[in-house]
């Protein structure tokens, strides 16, 4: 009897481990999350009935221990290295020349090129395949024993996969990090709870690993990539760094999928440029790339200088965070009248460009960060994201200015500034009387995703409003050629092109038209859903909030924004004006067939899908007759859960509603189309 239970437990654990491996290492989930959860529950149940058979490496035993009083110290038998840095291409060439000089031969050198994760270096020890210790780097010789916290990271196996070359003792090193999405979510939660937020994912990861209570760590979205193993060459036939990474993967340890084997320093530079290009699309922060001589025998020959290897170097990206001074705080008025506090800065070079303005988002954010004129601040500019003030650097003894208060009047049009209760934003109440709002509305209307009027950029929109040639978007279609020609920097050709582009824009789609109107919180996706649901502007304009909420993506707030927008006589005039001047779109042919394959079925989409976006997914489901709604109820046919699903998944689970993965959805769409 006990034997058969034991067998069952072993089999269940093995099955779960196998799924973990597929999910974390291969990045190819082998079963839907609900099925996985069922296996975990089955294991928990069986273990609860037979507590004496619980093993330390069971997938249920990640968060076991009581809080610690202190972390014990953990020494590293092989020191944990630091890396030398290079910033420029010529320094990298010099690095390779030094290597060849040292080796006293001119051979071609291959490197592994690895994204340099901006997290925390850790060392993990496995004995007979079992995780026995996790430690921080510390000073390289001695770190802290964080085994209990390391065990809570789901992508770290508690037991390695069987392997013919499994070393009796294996020490592996890697970088623990917090994925960007997880970081955003954690901070959003903290903000809602009125708690302190983390400055960046690295600090969040560090703070999470430093928790004395592993239950806290378990709640944090931590992940890891491994990048080296010490001394494995002695027990295995591995002779290169690249092979050792493959070996780590075979053992079930996660290795960054971007890592490449590249020839010479030129190969390294190509990799650097490629990674710099995709940097923002990665779900983890990196601050550069690391090149390592691939051949382990050459690594040995090259050795170390103090604690840095001669065979590896970090090629750092331009800093994304720098310190500068706030000269002044100004308020900019946007399309919807929102006043955004903006810090005017002493210009600094950050993230590859010179920055002299950084957003403070809104008054709440500004006060929370307590940013004042004259302060030294950390500025962050990551990729295409607008530069923002991260925090003030407080200097003891330095007298500060008073904080800036919200203006009472709009800096553009002097209308009253209002704040709706419960909202963080303050707004100019001037509406289209305010030139800043008019400019914003026109820029938005003309933008690529809206009416797509080529040649009507920000500068020209400003000029048109300032010269009083247009006050609302309709006026665009009645422009006087002579007056446009008279504007600064406008020649005959550019004027003709502009007027032609404006004329061309009349032929549009319903979805672009809705988006172009600039209704608050109606982005491209919502506009597409609305266009799909309402076949023409009349039915959209007369819909009440309940009707609007039947549309995917439309909740009570957005529904209210829409009805409020259409209630305004001015907006009705604009819309009727646009239509009477000839703005038009092709009407959809209404299908009479009520018996489509998914008629009567209701789906809810949550999380991000990889192969198609949510709007496309909703459109395709609806084309098959399904309804797509935003809230889960007992009547929901199924919830499609992408990556990082929200509370809808939990609700579906609680209600026993079927849950589909992205591949289930694709299969459904495929099957139904067949
Ligand atoms: C990071 N941070 O991603 C190393 N690292 O190798 C990678 N760090 C490293 N390698 C030797 N990919 C010392 C540090």
Overview of the molecule:
With 674 residues, the protein is α+β, with helices and mostly antiparallel strands. It is built from 24 helices and 26 strands. Strand 17 (376-380) and strand 18 (388-392) form a beta hairpin. The longest helix is centred in the N-terminal third of the chain and has 24 residues, at 2-25. The two termini are 50 Å apart. The model has no long low-confidence stretch (mean pLDDT 91).
Give start-end ranges of low-pLDDT stretches. none
* Helix content range: 25-40%
What structural category arises from helix and sheet content? Answer: alpha+beta
Q: What portion of residues belong to β-strands?
A: 15-25%
Bound small molecules, by name, code or SMILES, are: 5-amino-3-(furan-2-yl)-1H-1,2,4-triazole-1-carboxamide
Major sheet, described briefly? 7 strands, antiparallel
Mean pLDDT: 91
Q: What is the CA-atom radius of gyration, in angstroms? A: 30 Å
| Continuous helix count | 24
Global outline: globular
Query: How many β-strand stretches?
Result: 26
User: CA-to-CA gap between the ends?
Assistant: 50 Å
